[in-house]
Design goal:
Elements lengths: L36 H11 L11 E2 L9 H12 L6 H19 L7 E6 L3 H15 L3 E5 L7 H12 L20 E5 L13 H9 L6 E5 L21 E5 L13 E5 L5 H6 L13 E4 L28 H14 L7 E7 L5 E7 L2 E3 L2 E7 L3 H8 L2 E8 L4 E11 L2 H10 L2 H9 L9 H14 L12 E6 L3 E6 L7 E8 L2 E8 L3
Parallel strand pairs: 1-8, 2-3, 2-4, 4-5, 5-6, 6-7
Antiparallel strand pairs: 7-8, 9-10, 9-13, 11-12, 12-15, 13-14, 14-15, 14-16, 16-17, 17-18
Length: 513
């Protein structure tokens, strides 16, 4: 019986909890003043705009990462389950979650939903069972091939959990001849670092089949590509050549021979005492991420990057006649779907020389009178709008395959509106607006911090923080909307709302994609 193979992943999944969708006022407005429940939602993303761990991949040079021998890997596991108090099932759960999150980083369920986890009889197989369960909850459609089951309660429990989710189990005999017809991803969870010798039936035949695969399905190996020697790699040429390797705890020596495009380290758990004893150099994990990419970034053919959208049709007879109401409908649906910063929008302006510039800002209110955001009037966008008071807004809600474009003239909102909104903001944000002479050159970040600390002390008594005279809101009055819904084969839906001079009714036209 192999040493307990497991590894870690300290989850640290603590997350900022954003407010749930809030009710819309009877007038269907996102009003600015006073602080309505709607505005509290719209300002929440300003107050809690933390770094997304998912959107910023961390990269660690593989040359600076430690590699473990078979003996060291076994000793670390024994230490974790001995004096450090970890249980086998706990480490297996963390390892499987590491694998699932690594898969989700690269192979999105929209393109790679059909997953086959091939699980061996030991702890590596247990990792595969756990990974399949998490992938199910991530939106994938896993199946399990588990030929040599064990009667131990830990493993029977993992099987029961999958069966309760209606995850299908497939025998070796029932596997399709052409795996690419039924599966997009194969999880190789057959053998781990304690395995030695030649694979025996039925795994020898399975490994031979996996060796013959071409581009699809992709293969993800858990810790050790099955058929490899833990230290010497695929020295006999009889092992799997995976597209992704998820090393656990630390890469094993064989990982130096891995030449696939995606190498991840799963498990942010090694205690300092273990790292010091084995002189481990391990990467830092970004935010609450459960995995980190190591090695060289994959070569990407930019021309081949594309997504085949699948969405409900956007039909003329199903949309609102008023584009503001249609925008509110889509905005509400994006909020209900839990999208991050639903109110983020690209603002495009041009100066008097017709030179365009764009940046992301936050929508802070909208109704039939227009769309409102706030800024420093002396910033680049403020300067552009003073010279050419027209702008375009773009909302992009990726997870819903939707975007909305809005164009129109822009004007400053009233000083009273700006004053009221400014004082509804967190005090730190009020001070930040004073400190930041937006778009001006500063000698260093310390200058901003020093002034911020000085003003924080000045207003620590809770006194009113005055709004800068050069800070306030703009309102865009729309004269054109376009609602875009991604569709298969690039035949996207595009519905344009426009106004004709002297006619207050909106005209709806379908545009070619």
């Amino acid at each position: 019986m192999r040493t307990v193979i497991r590894r870690r992943v300290t989850r640290m999944i603590s997350a900022f909890l954003f407010q749930p969708p809030l009710p819309i006022s009877p007038k269907h407005q996102y009003s600015l003043l006073p602080l309505t429940t709607t505005q509290r939602f719209l300002t929440a993303s300003h107050s809690f705009r933390t770094l997304s761990t998912k959107s910023i991949p961390n990269m660690q040079d593989s040359a600076s990462v430690s590699y473990l021998s078979q003996r060291e890997a076994a000793e670390i596991d024994e230490t974790l389950m001995g004096p450090l108090g970890f249980s086998v099932d706990q480490l297996m759960e963390l390892a499987g979650l590491s694998v699932a999150t690594s898969v989700a980083e690269v192979y999105k369920p929209s393109e790679y939903s059909r997953v086959l986890a091939i699980c061996g009889p030991g702890n590596n197989g247990g990792d595969g069972l756990v990974a399949a369960r998490h992938l199910h909850h991530f939106g994938y459609k896993p199946s399990i091939c588990y030929p040599k089951r064990t009667s131990k309660s830990l493993y029977t429990g993992l099987v029961t959990q999958l069966e309760s989710l209606s995850v299908p189990f497939v025998s070796v005999e029932d596997l399709p001849e052409d795996l690419s017809e039924d599966f997009d991803v194969i999880i190789d969870a057959i053998f781990g670092f304690s395995f030695h010798g030649a694979p025996r039936p039925p795994f020898d035949a399975i490994i031979r089949r996996l060796q013959t695969l071409q581009k699809r399905p992709v293969i993800v190996s858990v810790d050790i590509p099955s058929g490899w020697h833990v230290e010497e790699g695929d020295h006999e040429g009889g092992g799997i050549k995976p597209d992704m390797l998820v090393s656990l705890t630390a890469p094993k020596l064989c990982a130096k021979s891995f030449s696939g495009p995606h190498h991840f380290l799963g498990g942010r758990f090694v205690p300092p005492s273990v790292a010091e004893k084995y002189k481990l150099e391990l990467p830092s994990y970004p935010g609450t991420s459960m995995c980190v990419r190591i090695g060289k970034p994959p070569k990407v053919d930019i021309s081949a990057m594309r997504v085949n959208y699948v969405s409900p049709e956007l039909l003329e007879d199903q949309v609102e006649s008023d584009p503001v109401l249609q925008f509110r409908k889509w905005f509400d649906e994006a909020v209900a779907a839990g999208l991050r910063e639903t109110n983020a929008m690209a603002l495009s302006t041009t100066n008097k020389d017709r030179k365009p510039s764009s940046r992301m800002v936050l929508l802070k209110g909208f109704d039939e009178n227009g769309f409102v955001w706030f800024t420093n009037y002396e910033s680049k966008k403020g300067s552009d709008l003073s010279e050419n008071p027209f702008a375009a807004l773009l909302f992009y809600w990726e997870d819903m395959n939707r975007q909305v474009r809005i164009e129109g003239p822009v004007e400053k909102i009233s000083e009273e509106e700006s004053e009221n909104y400014y004082h509804s903001r967190p005090r730190g944000s009020q001070i930040g607006a004073i400190v930041s002479k937006q778009s001006s050159v500063v000698p260093g970040r310390h200058v901003l911090y020093d002034e911020y600390e000085e003003l924080t002390k000045k207003y620590s008594d809770g006194s009113v923080i005055p709004k800068p005279k050069n800070w306030g809101g703009f309102r865009l009055k729309p004269n054109l909307f376009e609602f875009w819904q991604g569709q298969p084969s690039r035949l996207h839906d595009r519905l344009q709302y426009s106004l004709q001079e002297g006619n207050p009714a909106w005209i709806i036209r379908r545009l070619a994609p």
